[in-house]
Amino acid sequence: MRGSTLVRRMLATVATVALAVTMGTTPTAAAAEPEREATRPVAGGQLLTRSAATITPPPVRNIVGTVAVGDRYPYVFSIGTDGNLWINWQDQTEGWNWSNMGTPPGVGIRMPVGVTIVDNFGRPYAFVLGTDGNLWSLWRSSSTWQWRNQGAPPGANFVSWPSFAAVAVGGSSPYVFVRSDGDEATWVNWWNGSVWSWANLGSPPDGVSAYGPLGVLLEGGTPQVYVVGNDGHLWSARVDGRAAIWNDLGNPGVNLDSGSNAFGARNAIQVVPDARPYLFVLGSDRNAWLRWRSGAGWQWHNLGSPPGETLVTAPLGVLSVDGSSPFSFYRTDEGGLWINYWDGSNWYWSDQNPPFRPAGGGSAVVAPQDSSRPALFVLDTSGNLWSRWWNGSWWNWTNRSAT
């Protein structure tokens, strides 16, 4: 059976969001001010409405990330060439709309960080780095969208951030991971239900710095952050309120790439049984590599590369189809877009034939409407937002920027 046929058959059974797993615990750190005392509503404080479809968006500069609201409807957060944060979102009629969410009050947006969603997939959070050097969030309460200044870690220098990832703990507590310049430490900004806090996770030992994002997973309800070090190894640290202990997960005999060029990196997933971690990276040999954990321990697997083409980035994003079949998305040097997937017996590459040349970055989301609606969102070189989505019978390309 050809790879593309297998993709269609498997995706028709998709039923799991594995990009924002929700269970819970919280670390300890110095308390920050309560959320409601530091929030400011977006102009009008409105929920998104169907009438927003009349808005014409500018070209997209960066994708911040994507979530499935209500465990069903994709919301794509992006930064436009006008410097504003925009949402391209699907409503309950399955119509697509654009909404301009502006910028933090009196502050521009320097770069994206990531997204997550809390409270039973009902309340999205988008994180960006402001021109004031602070982390900012745009989040939705029960009735309004609001900007909040998350501040910056005490004494840290944030000139530019490679982002890590965001995750929801306990179903209601956002955690976002970033790296500081200079000391190159990993920091977590997290909400425990009452206050926001910053905690310093440090960096791997022996002078190794974590300079590449990969992802964060919940293991036994506790966040586990994964990074690529400047030694070419994969590293992990558990976020449980104690001093972070970094574990060297090694490499497969070739150095690992510095990480995904996608912000809000989601190149780590969990699959059944037992929520096993699967981590996808790019090697210096330009092959895609998988580091996964079974009952026998950690193992490496060489996924290779698409036939006749060269991978240019680590995955744009990863999904877990039906909770058990990993799918990862890649760009190639010939302007291609490929899926690598597991059908239960073997790994396959499938050419997605984009009708444009993909630019850097992307975001993947599983939105299990009728258990059959995964989607990938990427940019072309003109700043148009495109989606590759499954309608229950076949794959489709749609230019979301076209009005």
Task: Characterize the structure shown.
There is one protein chain. The chain has 403 residues and is mostly beta strands. It has a single domain (3-399), classed as Neuraminidase (6 Propeller), CATH 2.120.10.70. The chain is 2% helix and 49% strand. The protein has one helix and 29 strands. The protein is globular and about 55 Å long. Keywords: Signal. This is Carbohydrate-binding protein. Residues 1-20 form the signal peptide.
Secondary-structure map with pairings?
Layout: H1 3-11, E1 39-41, E2 60-69, E3 73-80, E4 85-90, E5 96-102, E6 109-118, E7 123-130, E8 135-140, E9 145-151, E10 163-169, E11 173-179, E12 186-191, E13 196-202, E14 210-219, E15 222-229, E16 234-238, E17 246-250, E18 268-271, E19 276-282, E20 288-294, E21 297-304, E22 317-321, E23 325-331, E24 337-342, E25 347-351, E26 358-366, E27 374-380, E28 385-390, E29 395-399
Antiparallel strand pairs: 1-9, 2-3, 3-4, 4-5, 6-7, 7-8, 8-9, 10-11, 11-12, 12-13, 14-15, 15-16, 16-17, 18-19, 19-20, 20-21, 22-23, 23-24, 24-25, 26-27, 27-28, 28-29
